[in-house]
């Protein structure tokens, strides 16, 4: 009898394993996967895998993509008047209980060029659930000095009220109410206007310190007091490149 019970137990165990593969327990598997991801992000520091150079490289490609063709969704007139630009990258399953939705950078216009990039982290539910979705990029066009100053002062900036992210125009003829910040979402090579509200954007002091090898504030970076490092030269080149440039 005892041997029979053990044998039945083994059969039950094998059947349960097979069910995971034949679809009978997919619901349970999804729940388990969700919990595992949740525990992973809760136990892992948000900055642990954040390579700022990689963020700069991704952002460079995003800038090059919307500038190579004016029809891609961010009009040249909007970009030419920008006082600053922020690029935010949100990875799939990127914010399940992690407290952060994504990472990115912000630069400010300085004369005929741009400042070095300052690292930013983003939290809040403004992006919507990213679980199972593709990696998404958001471009924030900072239309006013006040918007740049809010990014430069450090601490947290909440996109709400006067500083709410408004969907930006996607053609030269489209008229939008004036706003401190225009927001664009990149999807399959095109950039559509998207409103973002209630989002928290914060200076990432640790990331800036590691990247610049010293204590630097976002204010110092965005005021042009920090030299553009070699690793960010391609980003600045892409920002300075004319619209329609294939090389960027």
From TrEMBL:
<feature type="domain" description="Ysc84 actin-binding">
    <location>
        <begin position="124"/>
        <end position="241"/>
    </location>
</feature>
<protein>
    <submittedName>
        <fullName>Uncharacterized conserved protein</fullName>
    </submittedName>
</protein>
<dbReference type="InterPro" id="IPR007461">
    <property type="entry name" value="Ysc84_actin-binding"/>
</dbReference>
<dbReference type="Pfam" id="PF04366">
    <property type="entry name" value="Ysc84"/>
</dbReference>
<dbReference type="InterPro" id="IPR051702">
    <property type="entry name" value="SH3_domain_YSC84-like"/>
</dbReference>
<dbReference type="GO" id="GO:0035091">
    <property type="term" value="F:phosphatidylinositol binding"/>
</dbReference>
